[in-house]
Amino acid sequence: MVGSRDSWDAGALPSLAGRTYLVTGATSGLGYFSAEQLAGAGAHVILSGRNVNRLTAARAAIGRRVPGASLESMIIDVTKGSVVRSAAASLSSHERLDGVIFNAGIVHPPRKREEVDGHEVVLTTNVLGHFALAAGLLPTLAKSGRDYGTGRMVWLGSVSTVSWKTNAIDPELKENYSGPRAYVQSKFMVQALASEAQRRLDEADVAVESVIAHPGYSLSGRTNAVAGVNEVRRLKRFFANLQAPVTQSKEAGAASQVRALIDPLVKGGDLVGPSRTFTGPPRIYPADKVTKLTERSRLPEVGREVWQFCESATRTTWPFAASRAPRV
């Protein structure tokens, strides 16, 4: 339901019939519930993940809970550059792609530093894979932006970035690795990419919007059970419920990224997150309003540094010129 910047009813979404959205990491958690909400509003949803069995389970669960849901599945392992490029090429054949939620990621990093595809694993999963995927999807999103006014990419930030007290980044963390540092830095970089993407999209006059969303403090243990998708042990649910005053369910957290994806009140560069920071219905924080969450990651010099690193690390350049065309 479209209302004001401060109100949103996830149970009364506007009709999304005819629209197509991609959700990465849609096999569980925030990704699954985002896909379910979009499907419930009539959208065609492309569920992506790296495990075929989990994709099958997620698709079956949405089918049970949303009769008549329009779904397709696609294997996308964002840690594999060749897979990302192949997926983007395949998606270019779709008549339209109205938006994508870059949700896949590592929430619980390994204790010791690991690498995949030549880079630190949290960096590769949370940042580099989606940077490369966004580049591959840009022409397809731009076509929908020009034809339907709906091209939008949503990057998943985190409330944890309020603890990031420096503008400097050390992407690979070869000397000072820790799991929490790797996670928070990756989310700081994602937010910087989202802001920098909007600046470059505006400069190139590409009809795509880049938006940041964060889910607050959303726990599986406070989320309804979904067979094959969210099956939480009693002890974990018990401890999650002890944190009830400052936590919410994954369904509630997913509402932020869904609003960021579909609400026409949201503009490129905006942040969408819970109204009470950790919990609550999603509200819009305009790009021109400084928040503790994004005050550092929005800085142009930070965005340029992160962008240049990602271009070099992925050997990927966004095709702005090929995506440019007069807006309708």
Automatic annotation (TrEMBL):
Could you cite one Gene Ontology molecular function of this protein? oxidoreductase activity
* Gene3D superfamilies according to UniProt: NAD(P)-binding Rossmann-like Domain
Q: Which SUPFAM superfamilies match?
A: NAD(P)-binding Rossmann-fold domains (SSF51735)
Alphabetic keyword roster: Oxidoreductase
Which InterPro entries has this protein been placed in? NAD(P)-bd_dom_sf, SDR_fam
Q: Which family does it belong to?
A: Belongs to the short-chain dehydrogenases/reductases (SDR) family.
Q: Which PANTHER family match?
A: NAD(P)-BINDING ROSSMANN-FOLD SUPERFAMILY PROTEIN, RETINOL DEHYDROGENASE
What this protein is called in its record is SDR family NAD(P)-dependent oxidoreductase
